[in-house]
UniProtKB/TrEMBL annotation:
The keyword Glycoprotein applies. SUPFAM superfamilies: Cupredoxins. The keyword Signal applies. This is Multicopper oxidase. Belongs to the multicopper oxidase family. Keywords: Copper, Glycoprotein, Metal-binding, Oxidoreductase, Signal. Residues 1-17 form the signal peptide. Residues 27-140, 167-369, 474-593 form the Plastocyanin-like domain. It holds the Pfam family Cu-oxidase_2. InterPro entries: Cu-oxidase-like_N, Cu-oxidase_2nd, Cu-oxidase_C, Cu-oxidase_fam, Cu_oxidase_CS, Cu_oxidase_Cu_BS, Cupredoxin.
Length: 601
């Protein structure tokens, strides 16, 4: 009887994985998504990557997470605003205690928004271990859609394509676990996590070791002098070699001998597996939800010979924009439509690293359904030899002046949600992003937030009176707001030493990205800056997103302003979504609406 019951409950938990309420059974198993050396990774319901969670806007969503792994975990629904459900945000130490091995936790939240989201582990660097999967919230009938602006005569075809939208989950992969990666950083004293082994699309990929001639051809010009001076070249994986990384902090204690050779200097090509997106037969349009769930890399994305209509960003509809290529940063979602008006064939979907520290790329395929018999040749019957023409180079740049990249500063949310009456701003938080003493220690505002210590705050911040928060008075690591106020978040990056682009993710509700620029931020309020540089601001129809890309600061400092209204009291995280930066401390705690704190305080 007991055995029958156990089997039955097992059956139910797996069977329910595709319908709300969802069960996510997390296990720690050996695997090799790119055909490289096997390592332990996180599977969800026995699969990698995690299953698609598909729900309707307005539904209550339940995710029962079973931790069948040998370490603590939590799961965060990325971009979900968690209105009135701050305890379901999945950040250990802030909104819950860890889910310990053998334990479970039920996340329950209302799908107020529509569009493309994803879930991922928020403990330590478990994103590196593959704990992620897509969320799709189907819009309610009442939502106004922007499709007539793409092709007024084909609105129903475009709507059909959207109904059949499929996830295109982009990630990156290392042959070391997240714990091994962190241990190597601490032991060596440098950020070794910059060197990945492969790029994955929907969990599929292969190890591609570039010929030396291509590594040389595409070595970023800015690195050539320092490489020459040290008598070095990019590593066989296309990575900036450790001595160059160490050069940023000459006074730090460095032990390069503690870096195992396979982290930078061993590359073995694999066949792996490759993703093919097969368009439905006779479809005129195809919709994809591109989800950037990678730990570290940023990418250029394009589809050979096919312009891309971007119709949503971070789940939110936008005024559609027609481009040839996009840049993707950690946590980004873009929903795109592609017109299938070329001859039946295979077309390359290109993803190339635009992270300065590594040259690496991958290819997936777009296949028109009636492409049989194959017009294209196969190598060993595993993947087609492409004859289509790429729009981007192996380093992610345009192949010609005609190639148009998405300009994210020109995105306008649709319909425009920005308030008609200029909000009066209650607080301006000015942050200064950077590294602190080591290449692997980072801060959002001068002081690193010790992520490892924060995760085990007990009771979690949400369950404590705000006045008792241990960090409330620390302005470098904590933002404290009153409910129903407007906040300007000013992110500034210095170029000494140079800063990479930082994709900042805000938990809970989205913010308007109202301005960005190059040069020193030298104002105390955004109004002063806007008066001095009106051309750098949009307070009419700005992007409305849960991720804000602070531009890289190379030759000059940079800044970005995100404006939001506090509507959802709770303890939330604001952090860089590059996992090694978060792990190194690039985060702040946001105590939103302390005057209306949930619970009996
Ligand atoms: C796991 O979580 C529990 C409960 O929050 C905590 O007491 C313990 O220290 C955590 N273990 C680690 C290794 O963080
Ligand atoms: C390194 O240490 C020396 C001597 O203490 C100091 O003069 C120098 O400014 C330091 N350099 C950096 C980059 O911190
Ligand atoms: C496939 O490749 C072979 C050998 O390179 C070539 O002879 C043949 O024409 C190719 N077929 C097609 C359909 O391109
Ligand atoms: C098939 O794969 C093997 C091993 O990767 C390789 O040596 C061989 O050249 C491939 N054959 C063709 C026709 O590409
Ligand atoms: C960075 O180094 C300075 C000088 O040694 C020290 O005062 C400071 O505490 C260090 N900061 C961190 C976060 O380690
Ligand atoms: C900042 O602005 C003030 C007032 O406009 C000006 O006096 C000062 O020189 C500026 N500082 C920098 C570093 O640009
Ligand atoms: C916080 O403010 C928002 C916006 O005015 C309001 O909708 C919400 O009900 C408030 N929350 C609480 C708990 O008072
Ligand atoms: Cu960052």
């Amino acid at each position: 009887m007991a055995i029958i019951f156990a089997l039955l409950s097992l059956y139910i938990s797996y069977a329910s994985a595709s319908a709300n309420p969802f069960t996510l059974d997390l296990t720690w198993e050996s695997g090799s998504p790119d055909g490289g050396p096997a390592r332990d990774l996180i599977k969800i319901n026995g699969q990698f990557t995690g299953p698609l969670l598909e729900v309707n806007q307005g539904e209550w969503v339940e995710m029962l997470v079973l931790n069948n792994m040998p370490f603590n975990t939590t799961v965060h629904a990325h971009g979900i605003d968690q209105i009135n459900t701050p305890w379901a945000d999945g950040v250990p130490g802030l909104s819950q205690r860890h889910i310990q091995p053998g334990e479970s936790y039920t996340y329950k939240w209302k799908a107020e928004q529509y569009g493309s989201y994803f879930y991922h582990a928020h403990s330590q660097s478990q994103i590196d271990d593959g704990c992620y999967g897509p969320i799709l919230i189907k819009p309610a009938d009442t939502v106004t859609k922007p499709f007539s602006k793409i092709s007024p005569d084909e609105v129903s075809l475009l709507e059909d394509a959207e109904v059949n939208v499929r996830p295109f989950l982009v990630s990156d992969w290392r042959h070391t676990t997240s714990q091994e990666t962190w241990d190597i950083e601490v032991a060596s004293g440098i950020e070794t996590s910059i060197c990945m082994d492969s790029i994955l699309v929907n969990g599929k990929g292969y190890d591609d070791c570039w010929p030396r001639a291509q590594l040389t051809e595409f070595t970023p010009a800015g690195f050539v002098p320092v490489l020459q001076q040290l008598g070095l070249e990019l590593s066989v994986k296309g990575c900036l070699p450790p001595p160059v990384i160490a050069g940023s902090f000459p006074n730090a204690t460095i032990h390069l001998e503690n870096i195992p050779p396979e982290v930078f200097d061993v590359c073995t090509p694999t066949t792996g597996s490759r993703e093919t997106i097969k368009a439905p037969k006779d479809a005129k349009w195809l919709a994809l939800d591109i989800i950037h769930s990678a730990s570290l890399l940023a990418f250029a994305f394009s589809i050979d010979e096919h312009p891309i209509w971007v119709y949503a960003a971070d789940g939110q509809y936008i005024e559609p924009m027609k481009v040839d290529a996009l840049q993707l940063f950690n946590g980004d979602r873009y929903s795109i439509l592609i017109e299938l008006n070329k001859p039946a064939d295979y077309y390359g979907i290109r993803l190339t690293s635009i992270a300065a520290a590594q040259l690496i790329d991958t290819i997936a395929y777009l296949e028109y359904n009636d492409c049989t018999p194959y017009a294209t040749n196969y190598t060993n019957d595993t993947y087609p030899i492409l004859t289509s023409t790429p729009s981007i180079t192996r380093a992610g740049g345009p192949v010609s002046e005609d190639v148009v990249f998405l300009d994210t500063s020109k995105i306008s949310a649709f319909p425009n949600p920005y308030p008609q009456d200029t909000p009066s701003i209650d607080q301006t938080i000015i942050m200064s992003l950077g590294m602190v003493n080591h290449t692997y220690i980072w801060s959002l505002s001068k002081t690193p937030l010790n992520n490892h210590a924060i995760e085990n705050i007990d009771p979690p911040l949400l369950y404590t009176a705000p006045s008792a928060h241990p960090h409330q008075t620390d302005a470098d690591t904590t933002i404290t707001t009153q409910n129903n106020t407007w906040i300007d978040l000013v992110f500034t990056s210095s170029n000494t030493p140079p800063q990479p682009p930082h994709p900042i993710h805000k938990h809970s509700n989205k913010a308007f990205i109202i301005g960005q620029g190059t040069g020193l931020w030298n104002w105390t309020t955004v109004a002063e800056a806007q008066a001095a540089l009106p051309q750098n601001f949009n307070t009419v129809d700005p992007p409305y997103r849960d991720g804000f890309l602070v531009p890289g600061a190379d030759v000059a400092p940079t800044w970005l302003v995100a404006r939001y209204r506090v509507v959802n009291p709770g303890a939330f995280l604001l952090h860089c979504h590059i996992q090694s930066h978060l792990n190194g401390g690039m985060a702040m705690v946001v105590l939103d609406g302390v005057d209306e704190w949930p619970g009996a305080y």
